[in-house]
Design a protein that fits this description.
Layout (H helix, E strand, L loop, with lengths): L1 E2 L3 H5 L3 H14 L8 E7 L1 H12 L7 E5 L11 E8 H11 L3 H16 L7 H17 L15
Parallel strand pairs: 1-2, 2-4
Antiparallel strand pairs: 3-4
Helix pairs in contact: 2-5, 4-5, 5-6
Amino acid sequence: MEIEDEAWIRAEPEVEALVWRAAQAVLDAHEDIEGNGIVILLADDDSVQALNRDFRQKDYATNVLSFPSAQDPVGNPEGQIGDIALAFGVCAREAAEQGKPLAHHLQHLVAHGVLHLLGYDHQDDAEAEAMEAFEREILAGLDIPDPYAEPTSPEG
């Protein structure tokens, strides 16, 4: 793990443990995968925007990016699954807008990113439903509420 933006640590002092717990939960649920090498970059919005622009031709910061390792084992360290980058500003803003703790949102996005590394996607409704169902299952095991549930309005 590389923490490029210290804002992650200021906001969540236990950020490394949170990240690895979420990543490991996904890997533990996939006993059939070979390897478990994941590099996770906790970055700022500018760095993630540059990655998104350079690799996806989308010039904006996004919450999480996943870069699966190539299938050719010659160019990759043994067991390397891929890389994930998360943008602090985007993640913190989304968590606040959604009224959820940053820790929960971070773990959701890490799980989401790892699932992308394992081949899951959400390009159509069926894929999205399958991926979201698996995310719910993983997050429930981490005692995190369903991130896709409609927010309940406070009684007044």
